[in-house]
Structure formats: structure tokens, C-alpha cells
Amino acid sequence: MSSTKIFLKSSDDKTFEIDETAARASETLKNIIDGGCLDGVIPLPNVSSNILPKVIEYCKKHGGDNGSSKKIANGGVDKDKEILPDYDEEEDKREKVRVDELKKWEEEYMDFDQQVLYDLMLAANYLHIKGLLDLTVEKAASMIRGRTPDQIRENFNINSDFTPEEEEEMILIEDEWDDEWAFD
Amino acid sequence: MEEETSWITDYFDDIGWKFTDTSEFESFSKISDEGDNVNPVMSIDFLLPDDLLERILIYLPITSIFRAGCVCKRWNEIVNSRRLNVLSHKPWYFMFSSSDEPIGYGYDPILQKWYSLELPCIEAPNWFIASSCGLVCFMDNDSRSQLLVCNPITKDCKRNY
Prior knowledge:
The complex is a heterodimer of chains A (about 180) and B (about 160).
Chain A: E1 5-9, E2 15-19, H1 20-23, H2 27-34, E3 41-43, H3 52-63, H4 66-73, H5 78-83, H6 89-109, H7 114-126, H8 130-142, H9 149-156, H10 164-176
Parallel strand pairs in A: 1-3
Antiparallel strand pairs in A: 1-2
Chain B: H1 11-28, H2 44-47, H3 50-58, H4 62-68, H5 73-79, H6 82-87, E1 93-96, E2 103-108, E3 113-118, E4 128-132, E5 135-139, E6 147-151, E7 156-160
Antiparallel strand pairs in B: 1-2, 2-3, 4-5, 5-6, 6-7
């Protein structure tokens, strides 16, 4: 597979290099490349030079191995099993190692503060990198899950803008959907 | 929940107001204890567009979604928007009890918890029932002339004869 270099320019005019195969992890970049609109450098006015290297790091990890990540999504090697009666057990093991390694990588990759989380989410959304968008969205969701509205406001630096009457109504809703209220 | 349409999100006005406020303080200099209130981390609310907030909320179990709707007006609007309901994930399991009260039970497969759901729109627990995409359709067992479409989560109910 050819590894043509692509150049990406951040919002603050810094240029970064990425392999074409890696860049294809982004639907937006893939369309630019396939559309033949590639004219030296691709400007990304919505992505700053703080975030772009992080995005490139993700693409490098996921761009080249579309095949194997699809396999993971389909629940491993089940399909291969059907086609080949004596499927390769070694390959199955290697696949598991790959999945574990990827999970560990993701864990380390996702270790950053809230500001980076928003910027990365916006960049993934803009560049249509579904895997990265899912990762960031899931992380943000985990910061909301099981928390009270007060805790969420504090966590995300949000002010309540309800009128006192609405606030009372909200407390009723909050109580109604309190997990304590459920029974197992 | 009909009045939700009249709740207008005005967070952009808030930003504008804050900026004017700071510049006023700057011109008066020195009285600037207020400056300490500026938080270095921008709020998630100012940064993320509706569609991304929606995406985040969809990842939550239904009970968390409703509690997130109590955070501020904008989140409340998103939680109560039609789109979020359509996009929502794993369906709940729903059943009637055999008591005389018109009460149903909902099972959230994500949290693996049961919730009791009041159904004020139906009169008896022996009505016929069918469901699709989170909506439940009831028909009375006697005259079979009453047909109700109800969302047991939001308790919205529509009567069709």
C-alpha cells in the first residue's frame, strides 16, 4: 500500500504531516483525498495545533487497520469460523491480544483534562472520525452518569438558569428519576 | 410539559453580558475582585453544539437523561426534544400488574432495574396493550371503543376514538 504524505494545517497556521492511509480514518479527509481536491496542504480552520497532533495520533492507530477493527466490531472471528471448519486458533489468540492492546492504548490515550476532551470531540465531529467521536462522547457521558444535577453543574461549570418555580418543578422530576427509587 | 416550547435558551446573551461586565470593571480598574470569578475552564455548555450534547445524553441510561434535563434550560430542551426520544437506545420492557390499580412496570435493561409507572390515562389494568418505539397503545377491554396512545415515561397521552 502506498503511503503518500498529506499535510494538514491547523487553525494557527502550523503544518503537520500524516500518511494518507492514516488520514483515511477521517471521513472528511477521505472525501477530500478521493475527490481529488488535494492541493498540497489541507487547511483545518476548526482544529488548533494543540489538538491536531492528538487527532493524528488516533488516526495513525486506526487508519491503517480498517479490516481488523471491523472484525472486532463484528464480534471477533466468528465469520471466519463458519467459512473455515478448522479455523486458526493462533490467529484467534492474536486477535484477542490486539483487542486488549487497543483497549489499553485507548485508556492511556484518553487520559486528559476536560478542555482537551471538548476540543477533541469537536475536532472528531468536524473531521468525521466516528471512533474518536464515540470515545470522547462516551467519556463525557461517564462524567454525567449517576450524578445529581447539582454535581453535573459543578462538574461542567454550568449555572442553573431556571426560575424559582421551574427549579421546584425540576426537583420533583429529579426525585422521580432518582435511582434510589427503583427496585431491583 | 406543554410549556417547554416557551423556554428560550439565552446562554449567548449571558456570554455577551459577562464580557461587557468585565470590560466595565477594567475601565474602573482596581475594583477587580470580580476578575477572580472568571473560570479558566470554559463550560461544556458554551462549547458544545446541540447535536454533540444530544450524542452525549443518548449514551446515558434513561433515568440519568431525565436528571440531566434538570441541569439548565438548554439541557432540558434537548432532553425533551422529539429527536432525542427517537434516537434513544435499548427499549424498556413494560408490563402490567394484576392489581386493580392502573400501574405498569418498566424494566431498564441497561441499569437492570425495575420502575413502577403510573398510568393515569387508563381506568383498569386489563386493557389491551401494544407498543412500538417507546409508545404504548391501549384499548379498553369492555366496549373496545377507547383507544389511547401513551408515552409512559413522559406520561403524555393522546386519545383516539
